[in-house]
Design brief:
It is built from 15 helices and 8 strands. Strand 5 and strand 6 form a beta hairpin.
Amino acid sequence: MKDRALSLGFNRIGIARAKPSPHLDAYFRWLDAGMHAEMGYMAREDRRARRRDLNVILPGVRSLIMVGLDYSTLKLPDALTNAPRRGKIAAYAWGVDYHAVMTPRLEALAEWLREQTDQQIAHRVYVDTGAILERSHAQQAGLGFTGKNTMLIDPRGGSYFFLGEILTDAEFDQYDKPGRATLCGSCQRCLMACPTNAFPEPYVLDARRCISYLTIEHKGAIDPALRPLMGNWVYGCDVCQAVCPWNRFAIETHESQFYPIDPERAAPLLNDLLTLDDEAFKVRFAGSAVERIKRDRLVRNACIAAGNSHLPEYRPILESLAASDRNEIVREAAQWALSAARL
């Protein structure tokens, strides 16, 4: 099974028994504290039930096959990604949408398993789309440990990798041992580096303050108090991973589809983003993870980055957006940028 997974391009694989996550109670406390922000689907009772009992997802489930796929590419120069005229996109979204890469391979792995067992086994495939705590289950399958930044970290390969899983009613003769609970020691680099102080304590992330949540999942106006702290991030954030010492072991991916088509995919010019309409957005970001947030949210984020740049060259386009953009959230963000940058 593991050899087949590696032949399909995955970089790591672990197999665990299909049991509830050992961190389930902590997860429910996190929900009850409201740290999931406006991602209300997480707190729905049907989602809670699935996490309590994986049989709700797949009756008779016995095993969880967890895989990882590296996405780290060559580091782009700081002069490009930190340029005030450019927006920053998290590294995982530089190339092709990982869902499209991983899902067919997981289905192929499940089909191979069916052929080997010569039985009509049942399975479900997820790539961060199912109601399971996949980082916790991946730790139970031996793929790594949990960092203080809540990321799953492979001590031999860092944290720049995607996770996917197969739930199946097939049973294995052997299962992997869980990874260590943590290997962070006294290090607090990720906690100290977070621009918005999104970690109220180690191993706990408050989505309400997280730049990744704010730029991707949050659909409304972003808290004005947080906007100056967002810098030029326009989609996601890599800060808590970039400062992690374990990522000195990050493995450059062999998956060519995860490399940026050109530097503009990783650090686009803000002026280009501010002038996007729906059609231009679809053409530019087709097939990437950025596509899912649509034009309005990306332009909202670009307005905030433009305001944080304090560059007067953005005044005309921001004034136009503030006066006549069809989206109220974009209009408000543009007006804030004009005021914040004193343009």
